[in-house]
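Table S2 (text version). Query chain:
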Amino acid sequence: MKRCLLLTVTLLILMSNFGIAESDTVWVKKIGSEVLQVKFSPDGQFIYAGAVGRKLMKLSTETGEILREHEGVTIDLNARYIPLDISSDGTFLISGDYDNKMIVWDAQTGNILKTLNTNYSNNQNNKFNVVSISKDMRFVIATNMYWQSSEIFVNSLLIWDYQSGELLKEIQSRHLTKVEISPDNQYFAVSYERSEGSTILPSEIDLYEMGTWNKVITLGKHGTKVSDISFSPDGSLLASCGWDGIIKIWDVEQKNMVSEIKDEFYGYSVGFIDNNKIIYGGGFFDQKFMKIFDIQSNILGKLKIDHPVDMDINNSKHFCIVANSDYILLFDYLKIITGIGLTETNVKDLIKPNPTNNISEINFFLPFSGNTFISINDANSSVIEILFNGFLEHGQHKLQWIPKGVPSGIYFCNITAKNFSKTLKIILEK
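Corresponding structure-token output:
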């Protein structure tokens, strides 16, 4: 009992430091060193995390407990990036640091399965930044940098055949920040950080074709460093964010930008909830947030946070995990979205007028597109009238209820859709 009370008090203190309401988060886990990378297992049961000076960690999604530290890689204290990915079937994960190889672990046992080697023999200045496993688990792509000589610094993409371990391709490039492979395995995208001395220059997003490894097009650029890129679940869109505080949405097939969302200050991380909504981490000094937008740039919700340097999203559990300075934080993004729309504090504003003696206008916000059932029920939960039954796009909606042949009393408008339900009280006074 004392231990549970202590954990609860500690959690409340941590959340108050971040400006987070108790209802907004599932848990906060202090790691003790800066966390730079987080990743869900595909089933959402586990979280893998990399922090400076630590071994790769496996945590329970339910509790935040550290279940394992993987032998083989200890992240350098000066690390700015940590390569980490897990296979689409959840059976193996991969990471690396200052060395000539990437290490592959069995996700269940933690045993090392194999290594993927570079051609840089005896080069201990070799540094991996980012790694991505193709969804069909055929290929592994990593970003790498090393000193070729005392004066020549080389950045490159390394591409392996996962089954054979053969290094298929090395593509020399500029300073790469992220690599993402599309869910349909057709393309991979890379982003950059370009600079001259201490001046950070406009940086691009390049699109490559899987298999041929040829660059297809430079999609565009941000005014400064591109900090994160992410494909939509169906692979049709690519989101990018940068230190210019702008989120850009690109149509992958048409090879053009379809939306631009302007935020304040730096952008750190971005990811898709579905093909129409994104979560974005950004801000400056004490004004840092996780924000949820639709791709038309409407803000759907936000959560104040300390330093959202990296994140991952699991849509089956509607969770978002955030690398947050020396903490890991887990929150339910559905609660953040619905907090902007239907809440108990604004129910009266959603039914106009309320009480009513004739026509009621029902205004509501739907956080997800999908089949939606809206009915008027009496106090015994019997359906009086079906107002709508069909597909609705996410966003703001308006309906009318004209009560005919029903007596005065209390009625309820029930709204049920994908991952969402809400009941609104209507007082009818004839």
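Notes on Table S2: The CA atoms of residues 19 and 234 lie 34 Å apart. The chain is about 5% helix and 55% strand.
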